[in-house]
Amino acid sequence: MRTPVPRRRATAYGAFTATGTALASRGVALRLVAVSTGIAVGLTVVPTTAQAAIVAGRVVQKPSPSADDVAKSKDNVRKKAEAVGRAKAQLAQADGEQERLAVAVEAAVERYNGEQVKLERSQQAYQAAQQRVAEAQQRYADTQRQLASFAADAYRQNTGYSPWAAVIAGEGGPQGFMDRAGMVEVLARRRTDIIKKVEASRIVANVFRRQAAQAYRDQQTATRQAADAKSGAQKLLVQQKAVVVRINGQKKQLEQSLGTARARAADLARQRAAALEAADAARARRSTSGAVGLATGSGMGGVAARAALKWLGTPYSWGGGTSSGPSYGIEQGADIHGFDCSGLALYAWNKAGVRLDHWTGTQWTSGPHVPLGQLRSGDLVFFARNKADPDTIHHVGIYIGRGRMVEAPYTGSSVRVSSIWRGDLIGATRPSG
């Protein structure tokens, strides 16, 4: 933000007031002389007030609203803009918090989804284990029935209720019996092996079933925890959204208030600029020195100055401004309809019939350079980081007289009337086309 340098010239108002005071004092002196000499002297003295001054025996009203009124309105705009800035900072912080919470919610949801997948797989494994246990138990039961049937048959053969006695004495004789006895032993061993395998399967199945049951319980716990995390994050997100809505509402109110203040400030500035133009015109008409009028001049510069003054209060837009008027800019100015400094100069001088580029570099060389003591309305005044190097020019304004200019200053501000007397003033140019 640039800090204005104090004006180098005393205002005409101060001169007017001093003149009025001197005349008033002189009038009092004349009345004293008249009383002392007995001569009746009718001399009317008009008191000076905050809004009036005496010039050449005439009462001249000061431009209204006053400079203090305009300054106060601008200060009010500045304070409201700061309030909006604070609200925007709070909103940005709330937005960041909302984004963080949204990420937390997404993470919780994904963790919950993962736990659900694990739970489903665990349930499938548990069901498979249960199926294997059931199958093993079925095989075990079948084997038990087969063994029971075999034992019953063997028992019956040994008690004589079957042809076993005949077998011993029959075909094959004792050797045949021994062979058949060996077969019984083989079958018994096979039964024992089957029983062991079934028992082992049952033991393994029971172990797996216990593991699956524990995994199932663990997954249920994890799922509840993920669901709780999701629910908590969602509650926080709802709260944060409410904060964002509240801050948005506050920001909207502040911006509306700021807009009203800006409109008021712009209106006061326009009124004051108009009043100053009228005062300048009145002085120019009364002047016998042939001084050139200010923003009301009839030349091309006067046309350019008046054209620029019409856009007081228009937002600054980086890259904004064409020969037709304000426009959307670029980068930060892409969503702002307005002017930047060289765009405003381009527009103003186009109204005077002079084409300028949208660049301070060529605007600086668009005409002869003018001594600061000979400035006229419409002259372009330039500002540079290094006053010895025109290549460092970074800003331009349109001179309107009495040390003032119309400018589009910087992002976040609006077209305004300002003093030219700043530390970075490098010089002036009078565009000639």
TrEMBL record:
It comes from the Bacteria. Pfam families: NLPC_P60. Keywords: Coiled coil, Hydrolase, Protease, Thiol protease. Residues 298-433 form the NlpC/P60 domain. One of its GO terms (molecular function) is cysteine-type peptidase activity. Residues 112-153, 251-285 form a coiled coil. InterPro entries: NLP_P60_dom, Papain-like_cys_pep_sf, PG_Endopeptidase_C40. GO terms for biological process: proteolysis. PROSITE patterns: NLPC_P60. The keyword Hydrolase applies. Belongs to the peptidase C40 family. This is NlpC/P60 family protein. It comes from Actinomadura harenae. The lineage of its organism: Bacteria, Bacillati, Actinomycetota, Actinomycetes, Streptosporangiales.
